Amino acid sequence: MIGAGKAKQYANVVEKPLSKGKQEVSLSAFALLFSELVQYNQTQVDNIAELERRLEDAGYAVGARVLELLCHRDKGNRRETRLLGILSFVHSTVWKVLFGKVADSLEKGTEHEDEYMISEKELLVNRFISVPKDMGTFNCGAFAAGIVRGVLDGAGFPAVVTAHFVPVEGQLRPRTTILIKFAEEVLRREAKLG
Amino acid sequence: MAPLAPRSGDAVFANVERVNAELFTLTYGAIVRQLLTDLEEVEEVNKQLDQMGYNIGIRLIDEFLAKSNVSRCVDFKETADVIAKVGLKMFLGVTASVTNWDVDGTSCSLVLEDNPLVDFVELPDTCQGLYYCNILSGVIRGALEMVSMKTEVTWVRDMLRGDDAYELRLKLLKQVPEEYPYKDDE
User: Which residues form the signal peptide (chain A) (predicted)?
Assistant: First the structure.
Protein backbone atom coordinates (compact mmCIF):
# COMPACT_ATOMS: atom_id res chain seq x y z
CA MET A 1 0.00 0.00 0.00
CA ILE A 2 0.98 3.61 -0.43
CA GLY A 3 3.09 5.07 2.31
CA ALA A 4 3.56 1.86 4.24
CA GLY A 5 6.14 2.29 6.98
CA LYS A 6 9.76 1.57 6.24
CA ALA A 7 10.28 -0.23 9.51
CA LYS A 8 11.16 -3.86 8.97
CA GLN A 9 9.62 -6.77 10.77
CA TYR A 10 11.71 -9.25 12.72
CA ALA A 11 10.66 -12.56 14.21
CA ASN A 12 11.90 -11.42 17.58
CA VAL A 13 13.62 -8.50 19.17
CA VAL A 14 17.10 -10.04 19.38
CA GLU A 15 17.29 -10.53 15.64
CA LYS A 16 16.97 -6.85 15.11
CA PRO A 17 20.36 -5.25 14.49
CA LEU A 18 21.47 -3.03 17.36
CA SER A 19 21.20 0.65 16.52
CA LYS A 20 24.34 2.74 16.76
CA GLY A 21 22.70 4.90 19.36
CA LYS A 22 22.96 8.09 17.35
CA GLN A 23 19.24 8.74 17.12
CA GLU A 24 17.89 11.67 19.04
CA VAL A 25 14.59 13.06 20.23
CA SER A 26 13.93 16.58 21.41
CA LEU A 27 14.82 17.43 24.98
CA SER A 28 11.25 18.64 25.51
CA ALA A 29 9.88 15.24 24.57
CA PHE A 30 12.06 13.67 27.25
CA ALA A 31 11.33 16.38 29.80
CA LEU A 32 7.57 16.05 29.33
CA LEU A 33 7.78 12.27 29.59
CA PHE A 34 9.92 12.48 32.71
CA SER A 35 7.49 14.95 34.23
CA GLU A 36 4.68 12.44 33.69
CA LEU A 37 6.76 9.76 35.39
CA VAL A 38 7.20 11.99 38.43
CA GLN A 39 3.57 13.12 38.50
CA TYR A 40 2.26 9.59 38.18
CA ASN A 41 4.48 8.35 40.97
CA GLN A 42 3.34 11.21 43.18
CA THR A 43 -0.15 9.73 43.05
CA GLN A 44 1.18 6.37 44.24
CA VAL A 45 2.96 7.42 47.44
CA ASP A 46 2.37 9.05 50.82
CA ASN A 47 5.79 10.51 51.44
CA ILE A 48 8.91 11.88 49.79
CA ALA A 49 11.13 8.92 50.66
CA GLU A 50 8.75 6.56 48.93
CA LEU A 51 8.55 8.82 45.88
CA GLU A 52 12.32 8.89 45.62
CA ARG A 53 12.44 5.14 46.01
CA ARG A 54 9.99 4.67 43.15
CA LEU A 55 11.91 7.02 40.88
CA GLU A 56 15.07 5.18 41.81
CA ASP A 57 13.44 1.88 40.87
CA ALA A 58 12.45 3.28 37.49
CA GLY A 59 16.04 4.48 37.01
CA TYR A 60 17.42 1.12 38.10
CA ALA A 61 15.50 -0.54 35.27
CA VAL A 62 17.10 1.90 32.84
CA GLY A 63 20.59 1.42 34.28
CA ALA A 64 20.49 -2.37 34.11
CA ARG A 65 19.61 -2.17 30.41
CA VAL A 66 22.13 0.53 29.64
CA LEU A 67 24.91 -1.61 31.09
CA GLU A 68 23.95 -4.53 28.93
CA LEU A 69 23.57 -2.38 25.84
CA LEU A 70 26.87 -0.53 26.22
CA CYS A 71 28.92 -3.57 27.14
CA HIS A 72 27.62 -5.26 24.04
CA ARG A 73 27.91 -2.35 21.65
CA ASP A 74 30.94 -0.42 22.85
CA LYS A 75 33.05 -2.86 24.79
CA GLY A 76 32.94 -6.09 22.79
CA ASN A 77 30.94 -7.92 25.45
CA ARG A 78 33.40 -7.08 28.19
CA ARG A 79 32.71 -5.16 31.33
CA GLU A 80 34.82 -3.49 33.97
CA THR A 81 35.74 -5.64 36.93
CA ARG A 82 37.66 -3.13 39.04
CA LEU A 83 36.18 -0.41 41.20
CA LEU A 84 37.83 2.56 39.54
CA GLY A 85 37.20 1.09 36.13
CA ILE A 86 33.47 0.77 36.67
CA LEU A 87 33.26 4.21 38.26
CA SER A 88 34.92 5.87 35.33
CA PHE A 89 32.72 3.81 33.01
CA VAL A 90 29.67 5.34 34.72
CA HIS A 91 31.13 8.83 34.89
CA SER A 92 32.32 8.89 31.28
CA THR A 93 30.74 6.29 29.00
CA VAL A 94 27.29 5.96 30.54
CA TRP A 95 26.94 9.70 31.17
CA LYS A 96 28.07 10.57 27.68
CA VAL A 97 25.57 8.22 26.06
CA LEU A 98 22.61 9.13 28.25
CA PHE A 99 23.17 12.80 28.95
CA GLY A 100 25.36 13.83 26.02
CA LYS A 101 28.35 14.80 28.17
CA VAL A 102 30.80 13.40 30.66
CA ALA A 103 29.72 14.10 34.27
CA ASP A 104 31.26 17.24 35.77
CA SER A 105 33.23 15.42 38.43
CA LEU A 106 33.99 12.11 40.06
CA GLU A 107 35.45 12.27 43.55
CA LYS A 108 36.29 9.96 46.40
CA GLY A 109 34.58 10.71 49.68
CA THR A 110 36.97 12.22 52.21
CA GLU A 111 35.43 10.71 55.32
CA HIS A 112 34.61 7.20 54.24
CA GLU A 113 36.66 4.78 52.18
CA ASP A 114 33.61 3.25 50.54
CA GLU A 115 32.03 6.47 49.24
CA TYR A 116 32.33 8.10 45.85
CA MET A 117 30.52 11.07 44.39
CA ILE A 118 29.52 12.00 40.88
CA SER A 119 28.50 15.65 40.61
CA GLU A 120 26.71 17.53 37.92
CA LYS A 121 26.13 21.26 37.86
CA GLU A 122 22.83 20.91 36.06
CA LEU A 123 21.64 17.33 35.90
CA LEU A 124 19.45 16.74 32.87
CA VAL A 125 16.53 15.37 34.86
CA ASN A 126 16.58 18.35 37.22
CA ARG A 127 16.75 20.94 34.48
CA PHE A 128 13.08 21.81 34.37
CA ILE A 129 12.22 20.84 37.92
CA SER A 130 11.65 23.20 40.79
CA VAL A 131 10.85 21.46 44.01
CA PRO A 132 7.98 23.00 46.00
CA LYS A 133 8.92 24.16 49.52
CA ASP A 134 6.69 21.61 51.20
CA MET A 135 8.53 18.76 49.55
CA GLY A 136 11.71 19.42 51.47
CA THR A 137 14.79 17.66 50.22
CA PHE A 138 13.06 15.77 47.42
CA ASN A 139 15.40 15.37 44.45
CA CYS A 140 14.36 14.05 41.04
CA GLY A 141 18.00 13.07 40.67
CA ALA A 142 16.83 9.90 42.43
CA PHE A 143 16.10 8.70 38.90
CA ALA A 144 19.74 9.23 37.88
CA ALA A 145 20.86 7.64 41.15
CA GLY A 146 18.75 4.65 40.20
CA ILE A 147 20.44 4.47 36.80
CA VAL A 148 23.84 4.46 38.50
CA ARG A 149 22.74 1.77 40.94
CA GLY A 150 21.36 -0.30 38.06
CA VAL A 151 24.64 -0.15 36.17
CA LEU A 152 26.76 -0.89 39.24
CA ASP A 153 24.56 -3.70 40.50
CA GLY A 154 24.44 -5.33 37.09
CA ALA A 155 28.22 -5.22 36.88
CA GLY A 156 28.62 -6.88 40.28
CA PHE A 157 29.22 -3.77 42.37
CA PRO A 158 26.19 -3.54 44.68
CA ALA A 159 25.93 -0.10 46.25
CA VAL A 160 23.52 2.31 47.89
CA VAL A 161 23.15 5.32 45.63
CA THR A 162 21.42 8.57 46.59
CA ALA A 163 21.00 11.99 45.03
CA HIS A 164 21.50 15.25 46.92
CA PHE A 165 21.38 18.95 46.21
CA VAL A 166 24.54 20.78 47.16
CA PRO A 167 24.43 24.58 47.16
CA VAL A 168 27.20 26.20 45.13
CA GLU A 169 28.46 29.62 46.09
CA GLY A 170 27.60 32.31 43.61
CA GLN A 171 25.04 30.19 41.82
CA LEU A 172 21.30 30.35 41.92
CA ARG A 173 20.73 26.64 41.56
CA PRO A 174 22.39 23.91 43.59
CA ARG A 175 24.35 21.18 41.88
CA THR A 176 23.30 17.56 42.15
CA THR A 177 25.65 15.09 43.76
CA ILE A 178 25.12 11.39 43.36
CA LEU A 179 26.55 9.62 46.37
CA ILE A 180 27.66 6.04 45.88
CA LYS A 181 28.27 3.90 48.94
CA PHE A 182 29.61 0.48 47.96
CA ALA A 183 28.65 -2.68 49.77
CA GLU A 184 31.28 -4.13 52.10
CA GLU A 185 31.91 -7.18 49.91
CA VAL A 186 32.87 -4.97 46.97
CA LEU A 187 35.65 -3.32 48.96
CA ARG A 188 36.84 -6.63 50.36
CA ARG A 189 37.07 -8.10 46.86
CA GLU A 190 38.82 -4.99 45.60
CA ALA A 191 41.39 -5.23 48.41
CA LYS A 192 42.07 -8.88 47.55
CA LEU A 193 42.62 -8.04 43.91
CA GLY A 194 45.26 -5.61 45.10
CA MET B 1 -0.93 36.34 2.47
CA ALA B 2 0.05 34.25 5.43
CA PRO B 3 3.44 32.59 5.10
CA LEU B 4 3.23 29.02 3.92
CA ALA B 5 3.50 26.51 6.70
CA PRO B 6 6.79 24.65 6.56
CA ARG B 7 6.32 21.24 5.02
CA SER B 8 8.96 19.67 7.17
CA GLY B 9 10.09 19.94 10.73
CA ASP B 10 13.74 19.25 9.90
CA ALA B 11 14.90 22.80 10.49
CA VAL B 12 13.05 23.09 13.79
CA PHE B 13 14.36 19.73 14.98
CA ALA B 14 17.90 20.76 14.08
CA ASN B 15 17.53 23.86 16.22
CA VAL B 16 16.00 22.47 19.40
CA GLU B 17 18.00 20.86 22.16
CA ARG B 18 18.03 17.10 21.81
CA VAL B 19 18.78 14.05 23.92
CA ASN B 20 19.79 10.52 23.06
CA ALA B 21 16.75 8.55 21.92
CA GLU B 22 17.86 5.54 23.99
CA LEU B 23 17.44 7.45 27.24
CA PHE B 24 13.94 8.35 26.06
CA THR B 25 13.12 4.81 24.95
CA LEU B 26 14.37 3.16 28.13
CA THR B 27 12.66 5.71 30.36
CA TYR B 28 9.39 5.11 28.56
CA GLY B 29 9.92 1.38 29.01
CA ALA B 30 10.44 1.91 32.73
CA ILE B 31 7.16 3.83 32.90
CA VAL B 32 5.21 1.11 31.10
CA ARG B 33 6.68 -1.57 33.37
CA GLN B 34 5.81 0.45 36.46
CA LEU B 35 2.24 0.81 35.25
CA LEU B 36 1.97 -2.91 34.51
CA THR B 37 3.15 -3.72 38.02
CA ASP B 38 0.92 -1.15 39.71
CA LEU B 39 -2.28 -1.49 37.73
CA GLU B 40 -2.09 -5.19 36.82
CA GLU B 41 -4.86 -4.96 34.21
CA VAL B 42 -3.55 -4.29 30.70
CA GLU B 43 -6.70 -2.32 29.91
CA GLU B 44 -5.98 0.03 32.81
CA VAL B 45 -2.43 0.51 31.59
CA ASN B 46 -3.71 1.48 28.14
CA LYS B 47 -5.97 4.06 29.79
CA GLN B 48 -3.23 5.48 31.99
CA LEU B 49 -0.78 5.76 29.07
CA ASP B 50 -3.42 7.59 27.06
CA GLN B 51 -4.04 9.94 29.98
CA MET B 52 -0.32 10.64 30.37
CA GLY B 53 -0.13 11.36 26.67
CA TYR B 54 -3.07 13.72 26.92
CA ASN B 55 -1.36 15.60 29.77
CA ILE B 56 1.75 15.92 27.63
CA GLY B 57 -0.22 16.97 24.55
CA ILE B 58 -1.95 19.88 26.22
CA ARG B 59 1.44 21.27 27.30
CA LEU B 60 3.38 20.39 24.20
CA ILE B 61 1.10 22.29 21.83
CA ASP B 62 2.35 25.61 23.25
CA GLU B 63 5.93 24.82 22.36
CA PHE B 64 4.84 23.54 18.99
CA LEU B 65 3.03 26.78 18.14
CA ALA B 66 5.86 28.90 19.49
CA LYS B 67 8.66 27.19 17.59
CA SER B 68 7.19 25.69 14.44
CA ASN B 69 6.09 28.84 12.58
CA VAL B 70 2.99 26.99 11.50
CA SER B 71 0.01 29.23 10.92
CA ARG B 72 -3.62 28.23 11.24
CA CYS B 73 -4.47 25.16 9.19
CA VAL B 74 -7.27 25.66 6.67
CA ASP B 75 -8.70 22.18 7.06
CA PHE B 76 -8.20 18.89 8.85
CA LYS B 77 -6.17 17.58 5.93
CA GLU B 78 -3.59 20.24 6.49
CA THR B 79 -3.67 19.57 10.23
CA ALA B 80 -2.89 15.90 9.70
CA ASP B 81 -0.09 16.80 7.33
CA VAL B 82 1.45 19.21 9.80
CA ILE B 83 1.35 16.60 12.58
CA ALA B 84 2.96 14.00 10.33
CA LYS B 85 5.69 16.16 8.86
CA VAL B 86 6.35 18.90 11.41
CA GLY B 87 4.98 17.86 14.81
CA LEU B 88 6.35 14.33 14.98
CA LYS B 89 9.64 15.46 13.51
CA MET B 90 10.06 18.34 15.91
CA PHE B 91 9.63 16.24 19.04
CA LEU B 92 10.53 12.67 18.14
CA GLY B 93 12.73 13.20 15.10
CA VAL B 94 10.53 10.96 12.95
CA THR B 95 7.90 11.53 10.29
CA ALA B 96 4.76 9.73 9.19
CA SER B 97 2.82 9.46 6.00
CA VAL B 98 -0.83 10.42 5.85
CA THR B 99 -3.06 7.97 4.01
CA ASN B 100 -6.50 6.40 3.80
CA TRP B 101 -8.63 9.53 3.90
CA ASP B 102 -12.35 8.97 4.12
CA VAL B 103 -14.64 10.83 1.71
CA ASP B 104 -15.54 13.65 4.12
CA GLY B 105 -11.92 14.40 4.88
CA THR B 106 -12.49 13.90 8.62
CA SER B 107 -10.51 10.76 9.27
CA CYS B 108 -7.18 9.48 8.07
CA SER B 109 -4.27 7.28 9.01
CA LEU B 110 -0.79 8.26 10.11
CA VAL B 111 1.71 5.55 9.28
CA LEU B 112 4.91 6.06 11.27
CA GLU B 113 8.10 5.65 9.36
CA ASP B 114 10.08 5.01 12.49
CA ASN B 115 9.10 4.69 16.13
CA PRO B 116 11.56 5.59 18.89
CA LEU B 117 9.26 4.25 21.61
CA VAL B 118 9.64 0.61 20.70
CA ASP B 119 13.37 -0.04 20.42
CA PHE B 120 14.34 -3.13 22.50
CA VAL B 121 10.67 -3.97 23.09
CA GLU B 122 8.90 -7.27 22.74
CA LEU B 123 5.48 -7.93 24.24
CA PRO B 124 5.33 -11.02 26.45
CA ASP B 125 2.29 -13.30 26.18
CA THR B 126 0.76 -11.76 29.29
CA CYS B 127 0.63 -8.32 27.68
CA GLN B 128 -0.97 -9.10 24.36
CA GLY B 129 -3.79 -6.59 24.86
CA LEU B 130 -1.36 -3.77 25.56
CA TYR B 131 -1.16 -0.80 23.22
CA TYR B 132 2.45 -0.11 24.07
CA CYS B 133 2.57 3.24 22.27
CA ASN B 134 -0.76 4.48 23.58
CA ILE B 135 0.93 7.54 25.01
CA LEU B 136 1.42 8.86 21.49
CA SER B 137 -2.26 8.76 20.60
CA GLY B 138 -2.95 10.62 23.84
CA VAL B 139 -0.43 13.31 22.94
CA ILE B 140 -2.05 13.96 19.58
CA ARG B 141 -5.54 13.99 21.06
CA GLY B 142 -4.48 16.41 23.82
CA ALA B 143 -2.62 18.73 21.50
CA LEU B 144 -5.49 18.92 19.00
CA GLU B 145 -8.00 19.57 21.76
CA MET B 146 -6.05 22.71 22.68
CA VAL B 147 -6.51 24.00 19.14
CA SER B 148 -10.26 23.42 19.21
CA MET B 149 -10.44 20.00 17.65
CA LYS B 150 -12.04 17.07 19.42
CA THR B 151 -10.55 13.94 17.98
CA GLU B 152 -10.45 10.24 18.51
CA VAL B 153 -7.03 8.68 18.02
CA THR B 154 -6.63 4.90 17.95
CA TRP B 155 -4.02 2.36 16.95
CA VAL B 156 -5.05 0.19 14.01
CA ARG B 157 -1.73 -1.47 13.28
CA ASP B 158 1.06 -2.12 15.75
CA MET B 159 4.20 -4.06 14.88
CA LEU B 160 4.58 -5.21 18.48
CA ARG B 161 1.29 -7.01 17.98
CA GLY B 162 2.44 -8.61 14.76
CA ASP B 163 1.21 -6.07 12.20
CA ASP B 164 3.41 -4.78 9.41
CA ALA B 165 3.46 -1.09 10.42
CA TYR B 166 2.59 1.44 13.12
CA GLU B 167 -0.64 3.05 12.02
CA LEU B 168 -2.70 5.56 13.95
CA ARG B 169 -6.26 6.37 12.96
CA LEU B 170 -7.13 10.03 13.42
CA LYS B 171 -10.80 10.94 13.47
CA LEU B 172 -12.11 14.47 13.77
CA LEU B 173 -15.21 14.39 15.97
CA LYS B 174 -15.98 18.08 16.05
CA GLN B 175 -14.51 21.51 15.79
CA VAL B 176 -15.15 23.38 19.00
CA PRO B 177 -15.82 27.03 18.25
CA GLU B 178 -13.47 29.34 20.11
CA GLU B 179 -15.22 31.36 22.76
CA TYR B 180 -14.74 35.06 22.66
CA PRO B 181 -14.26 37.27 24.55
CA TYR B 182 -12.09 35.19 26.83
CA LYS B 183 -12.97 35.59 30.45
CA ASP B 184 -9.54 36.27 31.83
CA ASP B 185 -10.55 37.16 35.34
CA GLU B 186 -12.45 34.04 36.26
Answer: none
